[in-house]
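Title: [Solved] Folylpolyglutamate synthase 3D structure

Original question kept below for reference.
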Amino acid sequence: MHHALRRTALDAATRPLRLFATARPSAHRNHLKRSSPIRTMASKARTYSDAIDALNSLQTPFAVIEARRKAGIRPDARSVEDMREYLARIGYAPGDLDALNIVHVAGTKGKGSTCAFVDSILGRYRQTKGIPRKVGLFTSPHLIAVRERIRIDSAPLSEELFARYFFEVWDRLESFSPPSSPSPSPKPDELVLPRRSKPIYARYLTLLSYHVFLSEGVDAAVYETGVGGAYDATNVVERPVASGISSLGIDHVQVLGHTVDKIAWHKAGIMKPGRPAFTIEQVPEAASVLQERAVERGADLTVLNTIDPRLAAVKIRPDANFQKKNATLAVALAEATLKALDPSFKVDPAAPLPKEFVEGLQQVVWRGRCEVKEEDGIVWHVDGAHTVDSLKMAARWFVGECNADKKGPKVLIFNQQGRSEAVDFLDGLCNTVKAADGRGFEHVIFCTNVTYAETGYKKDFVNLQYNPKDIEQMTVQRGFAEKWAALDPAANIMVVASIEEAINRARSLTQTVEGDEKVQALITGSLHLVGGALGILEGADAL
Ligand SMILES: Nc1ncnc2c1ncn2[C@@H]1O[C@H](COP(=O)(O)OP(=O)(O)OP(=O)(O)O)[C@@H](O)[C@H]1O
Ligand SMILES: [Mg+2]
Ligand SMILES: [Mg+2]
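Solution (posted by the thread starter after getting help):
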């Protein structure tokens, strides 16, 4: 039935050069554009688009990342000192952040989902009780546009406000003149990591979020850490209302270490003296490190080892254990926040959850995670998982969805550009689906994260941290294709140059289905892939 397609598919995977003639990823074009003089632009033009250009100029280029990796340079306590310095340069002391009543969340998986739950609960509470007055949410990475990382009352910051605050921070940093007599002989590590006039991308956005939230009168802010915890940019906060550690596993091994206990050590660094901290059930190596670090740091750690029984009356989506753990953590964090903000708020573990909590949990919007979209002849399952554990979770969720009477060939669209270990993500995906239906995916499409075949990336997705040569030659995707061919020789495997082409290939499979069957597509492996895909599927900014 899929004969013609199979031939093209194999051609594409085995004959690299032909593809370039029709669709060449335009990553390198964006690299060239980068040399435009940011200074001139920043002083004249002040639009959102200019802000994103200026922000992109703060990305650490691939070559520098490589050099640092080879030299074994990792972030250390100095990263937080640097953040404090930048904070001072834009006019704030760490104590000013107390006004934000920060809920701080670290973890390998479920950070964003937990933060979204807390934000949604606080938002509902605000609507009925007027407390908090304004809720801030800071998350990463972004799905569709950079500005969605900074939200007020759950709405992404408008382009206008983003641009205005972005350049206020920019100007404050530029106008700062370093002390006239720098130390005569800089310490060796100053040579490695000079204090530049502007912090790198993620730190800049963190700094910007503080400026935005403080300027806008936010009085409860939910913060997701970027990488790790102890040395993350968000860890300048000294007195959070509560810290939360979501599910711990393996990711970012280059920065955090290769074992769960090392990773747990970093994440535990967000717990603060005398402050409440919460975590959920963890693997034993992680659990013991969290306990030790809580004692060492004088934090008041509560371990939520079981799912909150009050959630039995709440419809959590997806209806999966991992999500109920995220919700359990979120409820505890929201309760801690409201205890601090509203003297009339009382926690009664024996009573049902307050209606604001139930509604907040049930109506949360957290796009690109376990999303289902139906089209003629095809059902898209979209999930931004990008670690071994979360991909198994995503595969199980997909299989569960398909078993609920959805029939038709299964197709996978996958990419993961940045993580060298990503080729090992494929086993779990392949085997989970195969074990469930005995067949696995009939079609597997690997693509780059370049959104469109013709125009390349949207600005918000320009990523200088990847090797441009890899993207152009689709090195990573070819590696995936080879691996999948070994895992499942019966699958039709394709390698294509853009997300748009991957989606078109999957859509073309609808011609092969009969009756009421629909193609069952899973898009996963990377949040950028998923964000790009949603943008294409919805024909506009999906924000
Ligand atoms: N507690 C969990 N354990 C394992 N997997 C999870 C958990 N929560 C969510 N996931 C999976 O991970 C994906 C990403 O979830 P989420 O955005 O909450 O994580 P995150 O910690 O913010 O990740 P990152 O910022 O690294 O993208 C989800 O789509 C889901 O597949
Ligand atoms: Mg992560
Ligand atoms: Mg996240």
